[in-house]
From TrEMBL:
Organism taxonomic ancestry: Bacteria, Candidatus Kaiseribacteriota
Name of the protein this chain belongs to: Exodeoxyribonuclease III
InterPro entries, A to Z: AP_endonuc_1, AP_endonuclease_F1_BS, AP_endonuclease_F1_CS, Endo/exonu/phosph_ase_sf, Endo/exonuclease/phosphatase
Pfam families: Exo_endo_phos
CDD domains hit by this protein: Ape1-like_AP-endo (cd09087)
Length: 267
């Protein structure tokens, strides 16, 4: 079973260019988790014969949003962070209410949960660090609550490079958005709670990135950041065959990331 995650940075654009269709044809994921769809289902001309589609779009048009396309029918669908968890944290600020931005979508299968997440950006002036310090523990509480029922896979654009291995220029970017102590600590809490960064588990070396700036040919020069992840419950790790990054897939400033699971895992 192949599970992919991709921040498409506008699904209508990546469909129009044909990049999404060619990606599906070549990689044939069983489940594809999307972030930053920037669209409602009614705005997208896509007919994926082999997939069921689940969407959680932002109330604001053309902004944020997540979706999951799956070849396997889920038992249940959870949109967003459950209200009983969200109300414990301050998830709104001057920029908006993150609970209304379609940032989380979770499907339940027989043997596990799959959740896609688009974590709020801290902003260049770090003005959203306070909301990150609320968002990260709120999402973690949601994931750990699910893990009490069955194993969890969560993936997406977490908008943080965890260690110096996860960006090309750590010294120049230390303390800047995506590489602050607050954001890195938020990611570390996921690992402390019993989740595993799958790519780092298989690849202990740096030089592998998932996002590149549009400036100065950063992608061609591989001057990037690894801010897109697939994390799994420790209980699932023995069933993870591999974890990969796919920089050859074009169409977005992010590239897809994936894991492959043993076929013995129930869906």
């Amino acid at each position: 079973m192949k599970i992919y995650s991709w921040n498409v940075n506008g699904i209508r654009a990546v469909l129009k260019k044909g990049d999404f269709q060619s990606f599906l044809s070549k990689h044939q994921p069983d489940i594809i988790c999307l972030q930053e769809t920037k669209a409602e289902r009614s705005q997208v001309e896509v007919d994926l014969e082999d997939y069921e589609e689940y969407w959680n779009s932002a109330e604001k048009k053309g902004y944020s949003g997540t979706a999951i396309f799956t070849k396997h029918s889920p038992l249940s669908v959870i949109e967003g962070i459950p209200s009983e968890i969200a109300k414990k944290y301050a998830l709104s600020d001057e920029y908006g209410d993150t609970t209304k931005e379609g940032r989380v979508l979770t499907l339940e299968f027989e043997g596990f949960y799959v959740s896609t997440v688009y974590t709020p950006n801290a902003k260049d002036d770090l003005s959203r660090i306070p909301i990150r310090q609320a968002w990260d523990p709120a999402y973690l509480e949601f994931m750990t609550s699910l893990m009490k029922e069955k194993p969890v896979i969560f993936c997406g654009d977490l908008n943080v490079a965890h260690t110096e291995l996860d960006l090309a220029r750590p010294k120049e970017n230390k303390g800047k958005k995506g590489f602050t102590e607050e954001e890195r600590s938020g990611f570390g809490a996921f690992l402390q709670a019993g989740f595993v960064d799958t790519f780092r588990h298989f690849q202990p070396e740096g030089g592998f990135y998932t996002w590149w700036s549009h400036f100065a040919q950063a992608r061609a020069r591989n001057i990037g950041w690894r801010i897109d992840y697939v994390l799994v419950s420790e209980a699932l790790l023995p069933l993870v065959k591999n974890a990969r990054i796919h920089p050859d897939v074009m169409g977005s400033d992010h590239c897809p990331v994936s894991i492959e699971l043993m076929h013995s895992l129930e869906v």
